[in-house]
Design a protein that fits this description.
This protein has 408 residues and is of the alpha/beta class. The protein folds into two domains: 4-67 and 189-401, QueA-like (3-Layer(aba) Sandwich), CATH 3.40.1780; 70-169, no CATH class. It contains ten helices and 18 strands. The chain has helices at 51-54, 96-101, 160-167, 184-187, 210-218, 257-265, 276-294, 318-329, 365-374, 377-387; strands spanning 34-39, 42-47, 60-64, 66-68, 72-76, 82-92, 105-113, 122-129, 132-144, 147-154, 195-198, 222-228, 251-256, 271-274, 302-304, 334-339, 354-358, 398-401. The protein has a ten-stranded mixed sheet, covered by helices on one side. Strands 5-6-7-10-9-8 form a six-stranded antiparallel sheet, with helices on one face. A two-stranded parallel sheet has the order 4-11. Helix 6 (257-265) packs antiparallel against helix 8 and helix 7 (276-294) packs across helix 8. The protein is globular and about 65 Å long.
Length: 408
């Protein structure tokens, strides 16, 4: 049964965001963005490159190293109609890294733009690369919700990752209202992006540069990397009046044993997540550990449902939960799975002590996640940002949120 406290009106998380406040393009230098700081209940502003000076020695920063793929494919039919096929997730094979390495054949769940013009038949697209012709064919199969299963076949000597990189277009958030440019291939990736699989960037990480990492290291601030592949659901608006009726999207996660050991080492220090995707990954880890302790037969793969954290009280400590995961992993170095966790007001953060995040859309689940950490203070922060010329959303400025009573 869902807690009554989750009968939250999404209208309470609305605010006026004029279009001109949405950053349509990034700044020329990533770390020259503004950073709104909420610490000790006080709001201030510093340039992002001063972040290392703000953080305590021996803190642990958690980043999401997912990489945005060129998921949008455009096919032109003989009739002249253009069909967009937006790759969401693989279905055959369904493991994402295997699907990207696949040569010659694969099936993906896709959004199809202009699908009324593509009832049947094979779409074809070719490209010349290094003196060779590469062909990609797409065939629409069954409908799944508001998407379709699409069978892809292509020139066998190339992986699907290579084909997408050559033929696809990087997806940009719809609120930017512009087409992708060549520069976005770099601008819309973090500098540490490595694991291909997202259709949206973990944008809090866009501000980090090589110098940021050097400065953090010099101050003895540690870094660890998890992987959560960001799905198109991240842009799904909350269309219900109450959050209790909203269906959260599910995303794939991967965490190494080394990261879990780092979390245990820093459990009494500040664990700071870079971006909401890292927050959801780390908090999901805690609930996976709880399940392992409460039921020894729980599968080793992570599988956190939307409302699980709200359906029971537990006194299991974060350290106990993480140690249970280590025990279950045995000789395995990686833990994988999926999470649908929704973090909203009334949620009690278990591992994450602070976060770095961009400004989020009105009436979004990401605003709920922020509010779960800093309460009604989010309104003051957003008003401060609007009054002080901060840039909003994916290519905009950043925030550092540290709630009161955070342990040193």
């Amino acid at each position: 049964m869902i807690s009554r406290s989750l009968d939250i009106a999404i209208a309470d998380f609305d605010y006026a965001l004029p279009d001109y406040r949405i950053a349509k393009f990034p700044l020329p230098e990533r770390d020259k963005a503004k950073l709104l700081v909420l610490k000790n209940e006080a709001i201030s502003e510093i340039p992002f490159f001063e972040l290392p000076q703000l953080l305590d020695k021996d803190s642990l920063l958690i980043y999401n190293d997912t990489k945005v793929v060129h998921a949008r494919l455009f096919f032109k039919k003989d009739t002249g109609s253009v069909i967009e096929v937006f790759c969401l997730e693989p279905t055959e094979p369904n493991e994402i890294q295997i699907a990207f390495a696949q040569k010659g054949l694969g099936r993906w769940k896709c959004f199809v733009g202009n699908n009324k013009r593509w009832k049947s038949g094979i779409l074809r697209k070719t490209i010349e690369f290094e003196g060779k012709t590469i062909e990609l064919c797409a065939e629409r199969e069954e409908q799944v919700d508001n998407a379709f299963i699409v069978k892809f076949t292509w020139t066998k000597e190339y992986s699907f990752a290579e084909v997408l990189a050559l033929m696809g277009v990087i997806p940009l958030p719809p609120y930017l209202n512009r087409e992708a440019r060549k520069e976005d291939n770099d601008d819309y990736q973090t500098i540490y992006a490595i694991e291909e699989g997202s259709v949206a960037a973990p944008t809090a990480g866009l501000h980090f540069t090589d110098k940021t990492f050097l400065d953090l290291k010099e101050k003895q601030i540690n870094s660890s990397f998890v992987t959560l592949h960001v799905g198109a659901g991240t842009f799904k608006p909350v269309s219900t009046d109450s959050i209790s009726n909203h269906v959260m999207h599910t995303e794939k996660v991967t965490i190494t044993k080394e990261v879990i050991q780092d979390l245990i080492k820093h459990i009494d220090k500040k664990i700071i997540c870079v971006g909401t995707t890292s927050v959801r990954t780390i908090e999901s880890l805690y609930w996976h550990g709880v399940k392992l302790i409460e039921n020894k037969d729980t599968d080793s793969e992570i599988d956190i449902q939307q409302w699980e954290p709200y359906q029971k009280e537990t006194n299991i400590s974060p350290k106990q939960a993480l140690e249970a995961i280590i025990d279950k992993m045995g000789e395995e170095d990686l833990i994988c799975g999926q999470t649908q966790i929704i973090i909203a007001p009334s949620y009690k953060y278990r591992i994450v002590k602070a976060m770095i995040t961009n400004f989020h859309q009105p009436k979004s689940t990401l605003l709920l996640l922020v509010s779960a950490m800093i309460g009604e203070k989010w309104k003051e922060c957003y008003n401060f940002a609007l009054e002080n010329d901060f840039r909003f959303l994916s290519f905009g400025d950043a925030c550092y949120f540290e709630p009161k009573n955070t342990k040193e």
